[in-house]
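Deliverable D4.2, example record:
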Amino acid sequence: MADQYKVDLDELDEVVRSINKVLRAMEQTKGKTAHQTYLPDGALGKDFTEARELKQAHDNMKSWLESLTDVLTQMIDEYEHKTTKVMGNYQDAEYEHTSTFNLK
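Output generated by the structure prediction step:
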């Protein structure tokens, strides 16, 4: 007898919903990283090396965080699309099997 498997479509749907929640949270984080971490010139003092170095470190970290959130958002979005496609394929297969059995 062939191996059998069953996919719980409700659970797969819950995974998609959870991914969408994470994606929305990442979009908020991305916005905060880009717009709520501004450090104006001179905010840490003027005309001394440490202030310039700290400002540069802040700008570097801000750029890195923006890049990181972009990459993570893209990865999560891709995972969501693939999971949705898989769920649709399982739903289609289930419909086809149900239709076939109902015809007999």
